[in-house]
């Protein structure tokens, strides 16, 4: 059942249409990701939900209330931005308590909620420090805690991790997922980082030029993109035209198709069989030559020239697996079922 319902929401700046009839339903407790290229309207949609931007049309409902005609304060929504806006002269504890004190809760109640939230974000040890004594990642956790402590009906996160360096970002991403699950808070997170979207999201909406191109689970978005835009934006797959697919595999498809790099397998190398497994039925074999090799953490990425096409191929980067050098002749194997035709 839909908890947040966005119906035909549009927004304009002057003569420019920024959001064009957005339709979106989000379930209670869901972590929903808005993903898309710069300028596609992600932040404008988030601000429209929060009440910081007035949509030019449409309706937004949260629970059983219509909220698009309410002032921001009455919507029960908390927002965390890319750059934490903490009070610099207050301690962590005071930063968290501030919003609760505004609501005129008793001192005991404020202390109880602040302590519980500090424990949730693992900052009990930092309660009496001021923001300048904390790392970037810790400060962003305080910003998150300050939103959580208010127990909002909806949490909006606008690129909350993008100002952090890669390592902290990854750690905080895992932590954010845990905190969101534990708190059960319905959340919408904006990002232009597809790894972040696919790791964090229960469902993901890919936006393009003020519209939602596709909404689905991370697996659906990754394996079954339903447009060339989503196929091109997500992952790093081999997106081929029908003519190219036919040249490569002998199969005629009804439209362009995507083949993921990890679905192409080295079947033989320099004429010698590379795998012990027998070739299953319905496998297609293609001869090619390795033209580029690069290591990418857990995978080795190859470019293989085959039938005049350059294919991306990915293999696990195991310590004991031999890395193929450029110029090596290989035979690639591919299952028919791994050629995914993109509908439009
Ligand atoms: N206050 C404003 N006045 C005029 N145009 C604006 C204003 N705010 C945003 N825009 C325009 O609206 C479009 C969408 O902006 P928005 O910030 O929603 O995009 P975004 O998808 O969040 O992008 P990014 O990932 O770069 O933050 C952009 O073309 C932007 O130039």
Automatic annotation (TrEMBL):
Keyword Membrane appears in the UniProt entry: no
Main location per the UniProt record: membrane
Membrane topology label: Peripheral membrane protein
Localization, UniProt: Cell inner membrane
Keyword Ubl conjugation among UniProt keywords: no
SUPFAM superfamilies per the UniProt record, alphabetical: MOP-like, P-loop containing nucleoside triphosphate hydrolases
GO molecular function, one term: ABC-type transporter activity
An example Gene Ontology CC term for this record: ATP-binding cassette (ABC) transporter complex
Keywords assigned by UniProt, alphabetized: ATP-binding, Nucleotide-binding, Transport
ABC transporter domain span: 4-234
Signal peptide start and end residues: none
Membership in a protein family: Belongs to the ABC transporter superfamily.
PANTHER family: SPERMIDINE/PUTRESCINE IMPORT ATP-BINDING PROTEIN POTA, SPERMIDINE_PUTRESCINE IMPORT ATP-BINDING PROTEIN POTA
Name under which the protein is recorded: Putative spermidine/putrescine transport system ATP-binding protein
Organism listed in the record: Pseudochelatococcus contaminans
